[in-house]
């Protein structure tokens, strides 16, 4: 009996060990016709992905992440060699400063001319000489509110988030950087301040706010607004647009003190093994038809100037989706924090949540 | 038991089951909701069920999930069962050591297990579906061991000795005496491993390779911009399948009993 | 039965497995825990638990884990007892009924609780329909505790049920014959004989509740910061793997301590087993 079991097991062990030790070698080597893409969740129309693979013959391994921080953790772990990544401005700057980016060969991108020059100029905040990035979508951070519960006047200032009248009906954004931005704008500070006192002031203000906050949310804030669980929510413009589609009482604004403009862009990381395919991918994202399809799925503002021709006037006039020049003028981009400031704000953020 | 007492205990059981199954009823309800938002009732529809099979993403995630879950729970059951038998016959001190180590995955926060396994795997093997299977085995083996061990402990040594004395070969004794006793433990261990693997998100998320998506990881990335209602439909189908399977198994057993 | 020494080698593959997939990863974490970015040896990450923020979240975790465990025990014991008295022929069936909900994805189930508990949710609609005042529960400590009770209740019911079904019914009958009333029998016989199950249940609920972070993420609305959340955030948001590892090691030590206390209470032979 025991002999049988032991021999059976040894067979099993011998059968498994080679799998464990050898599967590694073959799979990830230089197949030129694959591309590893990392992007936000639900940030591409499935059909575009399919069409790219069909037209170029490149097989795409498509990876999604939920938050910028997730992306950084996955990338830094070095477990997967990504070829092309889409993420937000300040994270790109962090990676750029860490020397993780490879310059883009703009000459190999015939469709790059479709991209709005204004947005390219704004990208200078995280890509100073414009060597590394191609914008994908952009938008603002503002307030989504229910017109039945809050009037326009009230939400014209960030002050409304400190109004006891809305106790337990305020949804605050659950993102360290964006939450601090709100407090800094209210106080009239720069959203990129690294001054310890200014950060402390912002922190104290956020602590005051906590007692009125229903929840700190980042995912599906709009669900909370659709169901009218909350009166107002600090959220991204695309999320606001999504909410307004389902509940006609909702509206979105960026308060007078201003807000944040964010730009999500494609870049090529140092781990890239298929540079040419990555270029083809980025170019494809700039293509008129693909950009239109993506826009109609994602519903954030697209920097692609060719998309406008495919959309009706209502859509183009929708200030939630396409922020006006005036709105953009009072919105700033984030700079990447240096390590010390990042550590400090993280500590403050943790403290805010703990107390 | 008096009638009132019986009624009260049924009522109590019913309430507990309502508590456990209420969210499931909500989800089943949502799978028929003709709206992309989960807080708006857009009328009754079957469209999510119909569009389910044509959704390549979901179908491939389902395939991956099934492969990973089956592979990991079968391997974990084999590994765990033989380990449990081995541990049972070990010297006490050694057994305690092994059990201590077995407890570790159960004691660690999922995220720590996930990240530590990722750190390990990245050095020795590229991440892919296979690394997820390994990780799932790692966290589900303890459940198998702890389901099989109590069975071994309640096994009467005298019975086995009697079988051996009566001339049974060890193999025969194992098949006829030990195995029937062990089997329920092995089965429940297997099912627990299966369930744990099916339900896991954190560990999968950190140990999976590019392009590998299970239903859980897919769901997580969708939280940001709204869950595809097809996923409610798929979950409902999976749940009902398990439920029907369970009823059938129970039914079959009852029939067998009556036949006897 | 068989040659004990040689049969014990059946665990050999598993021993190798444990070394590679349990001990080695743990050493990695330990390595991170006792070093800093620069790779120099430090105990700062372990001592970081004394930071008031970390202490507070640890304390909150203990508080929630304890109340979860106690409430689970209170709910589960009668359930196990009733199920036992029902004399169901097929024990497996009962076990299935409790693990069946897990076949619906965990995150989906917790999302469903959001729908039930929110301000305009199902619960509040039902309350106002029968004329009761609505309650604000979602995104509070209470909601997190409820979510955990929901998640871990089966882990309490099953071991107790198992322990009860091992009790020899004749013992209970004997007690009744000797004139003990139901309550005395219950306290003096049933409970002590099911002690093993109770202790397994307590450990199986308390330990995961202590380190959980997903429930508090989804039902705490970012306002309930547990030690699990702190660790998760150190690994992701703050990108400080050293601190995250340090706190995980502390959490593990904490769990081991509470388990050894439980095991001391449990003087039976099966010490060290969870299930």
Structure, described:
The complex is a heterotrimer of chains A (355), B (260) and C (275). Chain A contains 14 helices and eleven strands. In chain A, strands 1, 2, 3, 4, 5, 6, 7, 8, 9, 10 and 11 form an eleven-stranded mixed beta sheet that branches. The radius of gyration of chain A is 23 Å and the shape is globular. With 355 residues, chain A is an alpha/beta fold. In chain A, strand 1 (34-40), helix 2 (46-56) and strand 2 (59-65) form a beta-alpha-beta unit. Chain A has two domains: 34-138 and 261-323, D-Maltodextrin-Binding Protein, domain 2 (3-Layer(aba) Sandwich); 140-260 and 333-354, D-Maltodextrin-Binding Protein, domain 2, CATH 3.40.190.10. With 260 residues, chain B is mostly helical. Chain B has two domains: 30-55 and 228-260, no CATH class; 67-216, MetI-like (MetI-like fold). In chain B, helix 7 (157-165) runs antiparallel to helix 8. Chain C folds into two domains: 1-33, no CATH class; 45-265, MetI-like (MetI-like fold), CATH 1.10.3720. Helix content of chain C is 72%, strand content 0%. In chain C, helix 9 (169-177) packs antiparallel against helix 10 (182-193). At the B-C interface, helix 1, helix 3, helix 4, helix 5 and helix 6 of B face helix 1, helix 2, helix 4, helix 5 and helix 6 of C.
Question: What is the secondary structure topology, with strand pairs?
Answer:
The complex is a heterotrimer of chains A (355), B (260) and C (275).
Chain A: H1 2-27, E1 34-40, H2 46-56, E2 59-65, H3 68-77, E3 84-88, H4 89-97, E4 101-102, H5 117-122, E5 133-146, E6 170-173, H6 176-187, H7 196-210, E7 213-217, H8 221-226, E8 232-236, H9 237-246, E9 250-253, E10 259-269, H10 275-286, H11 288-298, H12 313-317, H13 325-329, E11 331-332, H14 339-354
Helix pairs in contact in A: 6-7, 7-14
Chain B: H1 3-30, H2 47-52, H3 56-88, H4 92-107, H5 110-124, H6 129-153, H7 157-165, H8 170-199, H9 202-207, H10 215-222, H11 229-259
Helix pairs in contact in B: 1-11, 3-6, 3-8, 4-6, 6-8, 7-8
Chain C: H1 4-7, H2 12-33, H3 44-47, H4 52-86, H5 91-99, H6 106-117, H7 122-129, H8 141-166, H9 169-177, H10 182-193, H11 195-211, H12 214-219, H13 227-235, H14 241-265
